[in-house]
Amino acid sequence: MASSSSGSSIPAPEAVQVLVSSLADESPLVRKAAMASLKDIAVLNPLLVLDCCSAVSRGGRRRVGNIAGLFQVMAMGVGALDKEDVDPSFMAKLAKIATAEIVSSKEVNTDWQRAAASLLVSIGSHLPDLMMEEIFLYLSGPSSALPAMVQILADFASADAVQFLPRLKGVLSRILPLLGNVRDVHRPIFANAFKCWCQAAWLYDDDFPSNTFLDGDVMSYLNSGFELLLRVWATSRDLKVRASSVEALGQMVGLITRTQLKAALPRLIPTMLELCKKDQDVALLATISLHNLLDAALLSETGPPMLDFEDLTVILSTLLPVVCVYNDRKGHSNFSLGLKTYNEVHRCFMIVGMVYPDDLFTFLLNVSIRKCRLKEESLTFGAICVLKHLLPRSSEAWYNKRPLLVEAAKSLLQEQSMCVRQALSEVCSDSSFF
């Protein structure tokens, strides 16, 4: 292939070939330096780098010492191509090189597989149909490479929602028939793919609100996938499967029909609440999913709230101890993760407060006083923290309730818990409300 023109000085093909060979050097420093140089050259002349890399890659990973590095450089080169330099036949050859490596192994999510996936995603950014047709060849039936191919489609949706969404129907029509035979060990990969596809749908809808992609077929596929995830995968004994399924369901709740969502609430809410009590990673994704669920169930523009406040008290009572757990930065190795969970819980209360402001205020006040008397510190502390968070955001709705809050604060002044006393003092210091 001809090289791209550039005003900068470009190394000769022989020099680039030496750098490509150096990707397999025994020295990590040499490999790192060769990688950096090739990426720099790829920006200036991607075709030259791709020609040299594709020639070397024909030997496969058994002959190429650093196939992961080679695929990374190729992905960079493809991404740097100008539109006029994209040759479909050459891109098809590169796509087959990548998929041939992936299907030749039963491994999942290795470094070289991720690098091969990044090459395919880069090809998809220029020629999405070409890349996806190559992937679709391996979705026609059982295959050890199926999880890796599904992960590539997830990566592509995350990288380029605009190009992926018009092709969502083709993806779902091929994936849905395969879900019943997916083994537990691979279910998190498929659930993550549904999450990424739905996230791409939200991004696409934000950018192109007038271009509807949810036709009858897509809705039918999404509804079927939702039911399988909810009724089978989210009840798995494997925590990873349950967690990844709930994470995907949390992205799907705003896309499925209102009727289906309402029917799913009695099963979905307890599943999410159970995961909110798990460790940091799981609790975060569960609270994010719960936040999305409350948004879809309470703030829908197509109908009234699906949950009465009485239905929400179980959710709120479960979340209050979570506030207490993640308030202490010293108690967790990953404070950033805990803070995200803490904030997501507050967002859940915010949504409830937007729909039921008076009921929520009364609930939090009653919990603060009643649980304090019962020495249930976590619930008392959680309720006060939520009040502190919501006061400046709900000052108009709660303005006439200041005397009630003052009386409640007085009744809590004798509390011996330092955490409760500190939270109470922070509430009282909010001059914008008092």
From TrEMBL:
Look up the signal peptide feature and give its range. Answer: none
Q: Which Gene3D superfamilies does the record cross-reference, listed alphabetically? A: Leucine-rich Repeat Variant
Check the record and name the Pfam families matching this protein: HEAT_Maestro_2 (PF23210), HEAT_MROH2B_1st (PF23221)
User: Domain named MROH2B-like HEAT-repeats: which ranges?
Assistant: 258-428
Q: Which UniProt keywords apply?
A: Repeat
Q: Keyword check for Repeat, yes or no.
A: yes
SUPFAM superfamilies hit by this protein: ARM repeat
Q: Where is the MROH2B-like N-terminal HEAT-repeats domain?
A: 45-253
Kindly provide the name given to this protein in its UniProt entry: Protein SHOOT GRAVITROPISM 6
Native organism is Linum tenue
